[in-house]
Amino acid sequence: MDLASFDPRDPAVSRSRRLGLAAAQSYRDQYGHLDVPADYTDPTGYRLGTFITTMRDAHTAGRLEADWTAELDALGMIWDKHDAAWRSRLAAAADYHRTHGRLAAPATTPVRAWLAEQRHLAAKNELASARADALTTLAADWRLPHGADWHREYHLLRAHLASGADPAALTRDTQLAGVKIGSWLARQLTTWHNLHPGQQRLMNALGLTPTSNPLAPARRTRRTFAQTVQLLELFLHREGRNPSARETIRVDGDTVQIGAWLAKARHRHRSGQLPEADARLVAALFDGDWTTEDAAPAVLVQTPVVGHASSGGQRSRGYGSRPAAKAAVPVAAGASGQVKAGMCRTRVSVKRPHRRGSDVDLSVLR
Going by DSSP bridges, is the β-strand pair 286-287/296-297 parallel, antiparallel, or unpaired? Predict the structure, then answer.
């Protein structure tokens, strides 16, 4: 029977609708909703699916009284099944956003396909404005204007920093949830001029810009000429020879091309470009003309002497020494900028063989 074609005040119609409301209440109590299949019949034999469909049609035709509409609304009546399905998907998207802080869902999640469809409809201006507004309220960047991968990695980093993580602790090797977020961040900051203004605004919101790049290596203080002379002296004392042209040493984790530095200093001196004070510092480390390739290091060779008298008048084991050809280099500031007392006063020859051209670690001597 088409209930919508009858006067609602008719007792028979009213009673039928009352039975329908009771059946709808029972269904909702059991299942939590009124998304009733059209052919559903309840355990008492009442055709609830037909009742719901009839009410829906009557509402669409404008023949359902306001008080009945209100009663059905109170039960959670679904007037438009398509809209109800859309709202259900929107609720699932809201749950995902609440959990992950983004709508850039991976392909393995059920909500991904639905969101992709909404973006496609929006791009063709076929998405209802009310639905577009609902998605925008959920997440302003729901359309993922910069690509799903970019937004996914951005929000992964944003959530990481929002949890209290220190941006300074980020490195190029940092990974979050299996994503190489450090490499991704490095690409954004090194190609900043290629980013869309919207991307730059999002990165600025995290406090991550090329000028505040936490991945940039700390600037090393430029080593002075006198400090490099000290490193050369340490090399000469330890190796007992001149450094080869390609010789390098490691100091505080930094590689110093000591051989190339000495060759350049010799060239600058021969061409009159090296200050005299700097030339004297280097010359003090060699016998003869230090600008020649075969210049000999001025190294003190210490030999043990047995029976040397001590200050107490007794003979003891000690060391005698041959004076150096030139005075030791005055103590200057170390590579770290602090004075290393006595670092360049003691000259000790190294008797062990060493292969030319190999790296030498002098950090233990500093």
Answer: antiparallel
Contact at 8 Å (CB) between 115 and 93?
Answer: yes
For 194, the token pair is 């290629």
**Per the confidence metrics, is the pTM higher than 0.90?**
no
Q: Virtual CA dihedral for 144, 149, 153, 159, nearest 10 degrees?
A: 40
Asked if 139 and 97 touch (Cβ cutoff 8 Å), the reply is yes
Q: How far is the first Cα of the chain from the last one, in angstroms, to the nearest whole number? A: 100
Tens digit of each residue's pLDDT (9 = 90 or more) over 142-187: 998 998 889 989 999 999 999 999 998 899 889 998 999 999 999 9
Q: Which two tokens stand for residue 45?
A: 């034999």
Specify which residues 255 forms β-bridges with: 250
CB-CB contact of 229 with 222 (8 Å): no
Q: Which amino acid is at 311?
A: S
How far apart are the C-alpha atoms of 110 and 106, rounded to whole Å?
A: 9
* Helix (H) or strand (E) run with residue 250 in it: strand 249-251
Joined together, the tokens standing for residue 211 give 């000028």
Q: Are strands 249-251 and 360-361 parallel, antiparallel or unpaired?
A: parallel
CA angle centred on 21, ends 20 and 24, rounded to 5°: 85
